[in-house]
Amino acid sequence: MSASKPNLDGLLIFEQPFARVPYENYRKVFRTAQKNIERELGAIQTASNDLAKNAQSSCQEDPQGVIRSLENMIDRVEGLKRKLSDLQTTAGSPTLDVMRERCKHLATIEGIQNSKDSEYARWVDIRLDRWIVDWVLRHGRVQTARHIAQEKGIEALVDIDLFMDIRRIEEALGKHSCSEALLWCGENKNALRKFKSTLEFDLRLQEYIELARDRRTTDAIAYSRKHLIPWQESHLMQIQQASALLAFPPTTTCNPYKRLYDPNRWSNLIQSFRLAIFSLNTLPSEPLLHLALYGGLSSLKLPTCYDQDMRNHDCPVCDPWLGKLAEEVPFSHHVNSTIVCRLSGTIMHEDNPPMAFPNGYVYSREALEDMSAQNDGKVRCPRTHEECDVSKLKKVFIS
């Protein structure tokens, strides 16, 4: 492999959700079509079997009834055909187009042989635009994200529709309504069961708590029997505690029940829903832009980056804003150190060796020679402001 060829594994490490989101969307289309087919064809099969059993007598006694039965079956088949056609037009084909565009985008990088190619630069720019849109969407700026996507021509490469659904459901939860989230749980029941998610139970429990808060005891008992009791194998203790909640008013100071009445549970539900939908689509909980920055910052982060006297203006970690983000990543591990000149930001090596002032501070020879050329052979340490003749500098050897 050529040294200048892009590292394919490294470039694609964040691209799983990029391909997974449209795949999950098309799975939903497939499941919806499957349910429609099973329901309609099942009814037709039943009617057909009944008609076959009574064919001899029905034809003789009520030939018009047989004709009506056949027409009903034909109508159901035609209705099924319309439903499937509409589903394919409104959701199936657009999702397939998105999958095709994304596969084409990923295939582009596989054919690039040199990281200096203009095609590679374009691919990296598009990836950065996608990450920026992802960051904007996660902060609820849907219109801004849509504008960026349209301007850059990457509508098929970003997940605006997904985050619009997330925002819609989170807004409903923010208004203390579980209906939208429960509907989503119903649509993704099998996947949530596979992830062992308790989101649906948590939503049902919260609806029960709200009935208890309003002191609608009869409704709360009926709700518990219908929606909580089916979960008793895995959540028996919580159901028992919730049953006792009816004996405590919302103003109770008893901690177990005071926590159940806590309004902050709605914020926890929003976080649980977001984690569930992210897990379903293999989306990371952090913005992709942050994850990419973490990788770069962790390779540059040194203890000196947080020393006010040692900061370098060319170092991203020394930047106050990026440095704040870098606090969450570990320090870099270097088997061989790289020494960077504080004056010029260039790496010091055998052709540009480090030179030491009498006070011990070290800078690159090229930077000090440029300084002395502009200052009549004098150089000044930017830290201590000590000035000396360039001949007083001593070469430092790196071992």
Automatic annotation (TrEMBL):
Entry keyword set: Cytoplasm, Metal-binding, Zinc, Zinc-finger
Mapped zinc finger ranges (RING-Gid-type): 315-384
InterPro entries noted in UniProt: CRA_dom, CTLH/CRA, CTLH_C, Fyv10_fam, ZF_RING_GID
Keyword Metal-binding: yes
GO molecular function: ubiquitin protein ligase activity; zinc ion binding
GO cellular component: cytoplasm; GID complex; nucleus
Domain RING-Gid-type residues, every copy: 315-384
UniProt xrefs under PANTHER family: E3 UBIQUITIN-PROTEIN TRANSFERASE MAEA (PTHR12170:SF2), MACROPHAGE ERYTHROBLAST ATTACHER-RELATED (PTHR12170)
Family, similarity comment: Belongs to the FYV10 family.
Protein name as it appears in the record: CTLH/CRA C-terminal to lish motif domain-containing protein
